[in-house]
Amino acid sequence: MVPELEFRTLDGEQARRHLDELSTLYLEVYAEPPYEWGDEHAALFRERFEVQRRQDGFRLVEARVDGTLVGVGFGVTLRSSSPWWQNLLTPLPEQVTREYRGRTFAVVELLVRAPWRRRHIASTIHDLLLADRPEERATLTVLPEATAAQAAYRKWGWRKVAQKRNPLPGSPVFDVMVKRIPQPER
Ligand SMILES: CC(C)(COP(=O)(O)OP(=O)(O)OC[C@H]1O[C@@H](n2cnc3c(N)ncnc32)[C@H](O)[C@@H]1OP(=O)(O)O)[C@@H](O)C(=O)NCCC(=O)NCCS
Asked: Is 72 a pocket residue for ligand 1 (Cβ < 6 Å)?
């Protein structure tokens, strides 16, 4: 039998019930290079997720094969007071970094389990995440060494605008990327 691949879009309350599955997926995928993250990152992920899922504009898209979670992506609307554009290694003009109500959707995570890659599962999750968003643009951060993700984001029309490093000892440098969200004609 052909396995059944299904995509679902969830709000923060629905996503809350899937946190254990999400953490398992997170641990599995980010154990791989170039990340090699472990339990500490997974604990931080859970902690942040509890905050993010309550934030304005939260949307999560999951992919399941015969009911098993194989991929996920989620994001939130940036608040006007968001620290997103802090800790940049390269300065950006204020017109880029200024956040106002509903300007930017931040893609926080996008991951697919290794056995299910290169089947356009991430592409579909990505498109569903950004579909009919009210924001003008989307942003995300990605490690320069994450070659699959870098290739995918380029293909999907993302553009690198800066690099940043969180002010924690040993924190890696991330590329900051931006993509315009097309608005429906009014
Ligand atoms: C990045 C990731 C989500 C892509 O998932 P995926 O379902 O395999 O991606 P898709 O099949 O939708 O690929 C879309 C396009 O991205 C590019 N791409 C994806 N993986 C690639 C790879 N390993 N090498 C080169 N290009 C790649 C291709 O252009 C591909 O289109 P094509 O197959 O028609 O050529 C997945 O590799 C992953 O989970 N990586 C680890 C976690 C991660 O780095 N997430 C991003 C955090 S910012």
From this structure: no
Single pTM value for the model: 0.96
Q: Is 148 in the pocket of ligand 1 (CB under 6 A)?
A: yes
Is residue 61 within 8 Å of residue 68, measured between CB atoms? no
Is 108 a residue whose pLDDT tops 60?
Answer: yes
The type of residue at 20 is D
pLDDT digits (tens, 9 = 90+) for 47-68: 999 999 999 999 999 999 999 9
Between the CA atoms of 62, 68, 70 and 73, what dihedral angle is there, to the nearest 10 degrees? 20
Please tell me the distance from the alpha carbon of residue 24 to that of residue 46, in angstroms, as a whole number: 11
**Which domains can be identified in the chain, with CATH numbers?**
5-180 (3.40.630.30)
Q: What is the pLDDT of residues 14-45, one digit of tens each?
A: 999 999 999 999 999 999 999 999 999 999 99
HSE (CB half, 13 Å, CA atoms) of 185? 0
In angstroms, the first-to-last Cα distance of the chain is 46
Take atom 15 of ligand 1 and give the residue whose Cα is closest. Answer: 152
